[in-house]
Amino acid sequence: MTARVDRNLYPELQRFGATDISSCFNCGVCSAICPLSVDGASFPRRMSRYAQLGLREKLLASPELWSCYGCSECTDSCPTQADPASFMAAARRYAVASYDRTHLAYLLATSRLFAGVFVIALVGLLAAFMYSVHKPVDGSTLAFFDFVPSDVVHNLGIVAMAVMGVAALVGVFEMVRRVLRGPKDAAAKTTLGKVAGAAVYAVGTESLAQTRFRQDCADETASGEAGETRPWYSQRWFIHFATMWGFLGLLGATMADYGLELLGIKAVGTAVPIWYPVRLLGTLAGALLIYGTTVLIVRRLRKSDRASRHSTTSDWTFLSMLWVAGLTGFVLELGLYLPQAPAWGYPMFLLHVGVAMALVLLVPFGKFAHVLYRPIALFAIRLRG
Amino acid sequence: MSEHRQDPALAPASAGRGGAEDAPRAQLDGREQAPGGASERMGRPSESRDPKARRIGVYVCHCGGNISDYVDVQAVVDAVKDEQSVVVAKHMMFACSDAGQQEMEDDIAASDLDGLVVASCSPKLHVVTFRGVAKRSGMNPYEYNQTNIREQCSWTHTDDRDGATHKAIALVRGVIGRTRLSEALEPLVVETTQKALIIGGGVTGLRAAIGMADIGLGVFLVEREPELGGWVGKFGPMFPHERDGRELIAQMVADVKKRPSIKVFTGAEVVTKGGSFGNYQIGIRVSNDPPETISVEVGSIVVATGFDAYQPAEGELGAGLPGVLSLPEFKELVDGSKGPLRYNGRPVRSLAYIYCVGSRQPDGNEWCSRYCCSATAHISIKVSERDPKVRQYHLYRDIRTYGNFELLYTEARKQGAVYVKFPDDAPPVVAMDKGGGLAVTVRDLLSGDEELEIPVDLVVQVTGMVARKNDAMVGMLKLPLGRDGFFNEIHPKLRPVETMVDGVLIAGACQGPKSSAESVASGLAAVTQSASVLKKGVAELDPLVATVDIDRCTWCGKCENACPYGAIEKLSLNGREVASISEAGCKGCGGCVPMCPENAIDLRGYTDLQITAMIDGLLEEAIA
Q1: Searching chain A, which residue's CA lies closest to the CA of residue B420?
Q2: d(C-alpha B256, C-alpha B221), whole Å
Q3: Which positions ≥6 away from A22 have C-beta within 8 Å?
Q4: Which helix (H) or strand (E) holds B425?
Q5: Which residues of B fall within a CB distance of 8 Å from A3?
Q6: Alpha helix stretches (DSSP H) within A133-149
Q7: Which sign does the torsion angle of CA B432, B434, B440, B442 carry?
Q8: A22, A50, A55 ranked by CB distance to B416: nearest
Q9: Residue A308 gets which letter from DSSP?
Q10: Average pLDDT in the B98-116 region?
Q11: Which domains does chain B have, with CATH numbers?
């Protein structure tokens, strides 16, 4: 199929933070150096080639965009300083915006002002809504679900989940229909076994276990000296692992808490000791999330390693919401064990729930969208063989 | 088998002192000789010596294994050491090394040798080296003969050691036979006219003329067009220095006019050439009204007639469609306008360059013109500077922006030019768009062979250089043409501006595609080469030329027809007509020798007797 070159794509990508890739002469060093670009794969080079020529649909149909863990080794090796790693990140933001049909993702990624105002407004709106239905509470101990009825919180959460779900489905559909048009190996038969295998690999091995991030993506050393690696708790894969499992743990704990109420075992908001399983899970997960996001934020602020040299609005929006949600939740939990309810308790509760719900609502519209698209892309790549 | 043995270029050109490959004739012998005295000795046969009483030294070279790995050099020495008149026979690791040369010199002195044979590489590589050995030892250099047992034996018969050895023995016996009959010869000395003819008034010819004048030689500069300047005279800014070609030529023409020793003929052509090396008589026809022919005398001729731009055939990659231009046409468009680019009154917002049009074609012009990639990158930058919004696509097969011109390529890409590499066997297709523009369809290898459609306002065909047809001049000057139609030098590295015709030099793009800077460099090389033979006033030539036995000659004219150099003419002598061979004009090719029905012609150094002796030597081994 003949594709018409389109020189408008590249300026568009630049709005998403793409670096100047016009200096790229397609030598392929980036693809050669990339530990993930193997078995005939040709990224990041081919991705930047699509951008140079304006092959918009080719770019959006490339699951390879989501193979990359952003280590930036390609950028360090690039002989023309085209910074392929930053380009890949920008292309992912562009893809997220393109799969979203509301234009919200586009605005969130390209306008710092809009993103700031929008997120603050959304959190404020959610908090204001809950405040509008709050009940008077006595000041003895913190009783969040006396302050805002648990039904309100849960139903609001369910609505947020549903809205997000619809947007996510649309985004996934937009991605999948493009990926399906991509190259197929006509000779290879797709069997149920292969599909299951690819799904287990994409979701389990590569996403949840972070196997390739851990094993294949060489971690830059703290000092930059060869042969000296960071301790495991400081390696990029672990920071991501901690953030991801911290979030998943908190999500699980929240769901389990609600589930216990539905089962009539324990009402939400009942005081429990710290070793109560659901509380314990929440506490550990919260600690992991705070650790992960704090390290990520510090590294981005300090630009201390090559992977965090460039930060965009998307990065900051997502990271700061995660960090605020995690930190406020953790502090609130500590507050529960205080003998006297602190004055900041209820406002912080409103902030925490507002940020958490905004985070969920915005999943398909920002950097968080990688939880949707990355496993699907990895699945598609695995299935193609 | 090691790789280097297959490549003559990697074998030592010379392991020690001495000349390299086939050095210019004039440099064969540094002896200063008065012209008169020398001509008396010229070609005089040495007193006949008894071939059986000759004292010959034979040296078989290992060439560091290049020869000895496949030829049993000891067996070769053993086979010839007892040959008649062989006094010394040895093998050596490197005959051309200082140690090897010294050993030969010592042997010549100790054994009073009067003939020298080296069996080694091609005489093209080291004949000058070993003639030097002979000369330093007081032996006449022409008593030295070389036979090539490397290219002809070891390199060619790697599968047959015995066969290679037998062939080497035969060749050495042959050259010993020839050396027994060798004569002491002296170089020919000719007086030279200290003036040069330069054909072509482009950038090469102009710079060469200035160089000639400054080195003290008179110059006749002949330009066919009414104006000097050639291609460069039409150009605006040129890479890599950004100098305007028109200004550059104006400056050079002013410099030429300042030099009274340069006589310029424009609208003129060289029509006749007579004489021989050092003293050519040239007829220049000047298209005045009425046209006149001027006769001048020169010592050397520099041909700097330039090139033609390749003209695509109708329909070739869109040639003939409105908006499809060749690179020179586009250069003219860009240089001749200011502000945002317009073509036929319409603004140019996008354009595609198609590279290698007419170049590197398996069934056409096979060569690369080298300048076009850089020139196109340069003009692309110029276009971007005038209007950064113009979208430029460079459709190429390979980019050859050699040397510093890589910077142009980088700069063009920085300005936003997109380079698209298409497969060699699938050139782009240019067609008219529905909207009246052009649409180029091309396969892009870099995106995994995607087929792209590029809508553009203009297509520029990046055409290369082709040889300029000039049959009359080629025939008159006997210029050697390559298969590609460009003029051939003797050796691309060692004698880059000399032709097989002594005193006729080539410079600039008439020799093959060159940038203007490279053309000027070769023009100045031609100046140096001219000066090296003209400034002394005399030049020495190899004495290995044909001679006529006037008693036998009956003047049938067959030799005259056979001579490719026009060196033979009829001479009336004591009422008889006989052939006379110009020693300065003869190249020693031997073409006339077998044509003579009376056996009246012999070639010095390769006389019939010597050739017969060589054959006898070769056969001896074959029969054995």
Answers
A1: A53
A2: 10
A3: A10, A52, A82, B413, B414, B416
A4: none
A5: 450-453
A6: 144-147
A7: negative
A8: A22
A9: G
A10: 96
A11: 3-187 (3.40.50), 195-306+468-535 (3.50.50.60), 310-465 (3.50.50.60), 546-610 (3.30.70.20)
Q: Are B420 and A53 in contact (CB < 8 Å)?
A: yes
Q: What are the CA-CA distances from residue A97 to residues A167, A175, B258, B456 (Å)? A: 12, 11, 71, 30
Instruction: For B333-343, write each residue's pLDDT tens digit.
Output: 999 999 899 99
Cα distance from N-terminal residue to C-terminal residue, chain B = 30
Q: Which residues of A332-353 are buried (b: 16+ CB within 10 A; e: fewer)?
A: beebbeeeebeeebbebbbbbb
Instruction: Calculate the alpha carbon distances from B110 to B98, B106, B113, B287, B442 in Å.
Output: 18, 6, 8, 68, 76
- Residue A224, classed as helix, strand or coil, is coil
- pLDDT above 70: residue B27: no
Omega into B24 within 30° of 0, i.e. cis? no
Q: Residue B64 gets which letter from DSSP?
A: G
How far CA B134 is from CA of A195, B12, B117, B145, in Å, comes to: 85, 21, 10, 10
* ipTM rounded to 2 decimals: 0.84
Per-residue pLDDT, A258 = 87
Residue B505 is inside which H or E element, if any?
Answer: strand B504-506
Contacts of A242 (CB under 8 A, 6+ apart): A288, A289, A291, A292
Cα A263 vs. chain centroid, distance in angstroms?
32
Q: Which residues of B touch A46 (CB under 8 A)?
A: 446-448
Tens of pLDDT, residue by residue over B12-24, are 444 554 444 444 4
Task: Give how far Cα B94 sits from Cα of A335, B74, B101, B316, Å.
Answer: 94, 14, 9, 56
Q: How far is B395 from chain A (nearest CA, A)?
A: 12
pTM: 0.80
How many A×B Cβ pairs under 8 Å? 52
Which residues on B lie below 8 Å from A25 (Cβ)? Answer: 409, 413, 419
Tokens for B447, please give them. 């995106």
Contacts of B418 in chain A (CB under 8 A): 5, 7, 52-53
Q: Which residues touch B206 (CB under 8 Å, ≥6 apart)?
A: B221, B228, B229, B249, B252, B253, B255, B256
Interatomic CA distance for residues B492 and B391, integer angstroms = 41
* pLDDT tens for each residue of A315-331: 999 999 999 999 999 89
Handedness of CA B318, B469, B400, B385 (dihedral sign): negative
Structure tokens at A284: 């550990």
Length of chain A: 385
Beta-ladder partners of B298: B280
Please give the average per-residue pLDDT across B352-367, as a whole number: 93
**Helix A277-302, helix A313-336: angle, nearest 10:** 140
Alpha-carbon Rg for chain B in angstroms: 30
Q: Which amino acid is at A218?
A: A
b (16+ CB within 10 A) / e for B430-449: beeeeeebbbbebbbbbbee
CA-closest candidate to residue B70, choices B142, B205, B166:
B166
CA distance B381 to A180: 41
**Nearest residue on chain A to B389, judged by CA atoms?**
A7
For A57-110, give the DSSP string. Answer: HHHHT-GGGGT-----HHHHH-TT---HHHHHHHHHHHHHHHH-SSSHHHHHHH
Any chain B CB within 8 A of the CB of A46? yes
Distance CA B524, CA B530 (A): 10
Measure the CA–CA gap between A3 and B248, rounded to whole angstroms. Answer: 45
Amino acid making up residue B157: H
**pLDDT, average across residues A19-26:** 86
